[in-house]
């Protein structure tokens, strides 16, 4: 799987209709709903707000009044073809007065998304674990060196409490450490 690094916007015009594609990095359905409402506020006079999102095993698309299967499905197909996760794409359409037909709409919405994807950095996602463990102060240098490439949070108490996000494939680095798994979480890699 892959994801985008940052949000991006692109715009194309086809037969006087404007298509504004907005790509967002999202992690929850509530975040998707907030982003769609934000788009509707920012583009109040638009004709359609078609979208698709993929968050792990959850996905949905909407044609928002366009003929069935001509907007949301093509947006979703581009996201899936690019193996994307944690992504919402909203394509805002301002109708230009010329009907595009079903095939024309499919091509227009697909092109809008593709144009946005050309402007954004995409990173790979690998399965990871958020883990925690405690260590003595004497072992701090060794542990910090071993985990130098990972996101670490440390809490200094009688011992040092580590919270680390690490790829599952690299758990062997912690063979001598008794750790607790907090959550499974995908990790971005270049």
Summarize the structure in words.
With 190 residues, the chain is α+β, with helices and mostly antiparallel strands. The chain has two domains: 2-120, 2-Layer Sandwich (Ribosomal Protein S5, domain 2), CATH 3.30.230.30; 124-189, 2-Layer Sandwich (Alpha-Beta Plaits), CATH 3.30.70. Helix content is 25%, strand content 41%. Strands 1, 7, 8, 9 and 10 form a five-stranded antiparallel sheet that branches. A five-stranded antiparallel sheet has the order 2-3-6-4-5, sandwiched between helices. A hairpin with a 2-residue loop joins strand 2 (8-14) and strand 3. Helix 2 (72-81) packs parallel to helix 3 (101-117). The longest helix has 17 residues, at 101-117. The relative contact order is 0.19.
**CATH topology value of the largest domain:** Ribosomal Protein S5, domain 2
Name of the CATH homologous superfamily of the largest domain: Impact, N-terminal domain
CATH architecture level-2 label of the largest domain = 2-Layer Sandwich
Return the domain count: 2
Q: Which of globular, elongated, flat, extended, rod-shaped describes the shape?
A: elongated
User: What is the number of helices?
Assistant: 4
Mean pLDDT: 95
Distance between the termini: 12 Å
Number of strands: 10
Percent strand:
35-45%
Class by alpha and beta content: alpha+beta
- Helical percentage: 25-40%
- Mind telling me the CATH class of the largest domain? Alpha Beta
Low-pLDDT runs: none
Largest sheet: 5 strands, antiparallel
Radius of gyration: 22 Å
The SSE string, one letter per element, is EEEHEEHEHEHEEE
């Amino acid at each position: 799987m892959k994801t985008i690094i940052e949000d991006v916007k692109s715009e194309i015009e086809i037969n006087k209709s404007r298509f504004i594609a907005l790509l967002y990095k999202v992690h929850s359905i509530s975040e998707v709903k907030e982003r769609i409402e934000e788009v509707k506020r920012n583009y109040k006079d638009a004709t359609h707000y078609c979208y698709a999102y993929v968050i792990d095993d959850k996905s949905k698309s909407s044609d928002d009044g366009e003929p069935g299967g001509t907007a949301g499905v093509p947006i979703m197909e581009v996201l899936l073809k690019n193996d994307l996760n944690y992504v919402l794409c909203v394509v805002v359409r301002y109708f230009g007065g010329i009907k595009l037909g079903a095939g024309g709409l499919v091509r227009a919405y697909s092109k809008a998304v593709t144009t946005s994807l050309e402007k954004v950095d995409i990173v790979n996602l690998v399965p990871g674990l958020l883990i925690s463990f405690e260590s003595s102060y004497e072992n701090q240098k060794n542990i910090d060196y071993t985990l130098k490439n990972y996101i670490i949070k440390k809490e200094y108490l009688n011992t040092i409490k580590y919270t680390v996000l690490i790829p599952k494939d690299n758990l062997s680095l912690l063979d001598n450490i008794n750790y607790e798994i907090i959550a499974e979480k995908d990790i971005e890699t270049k």
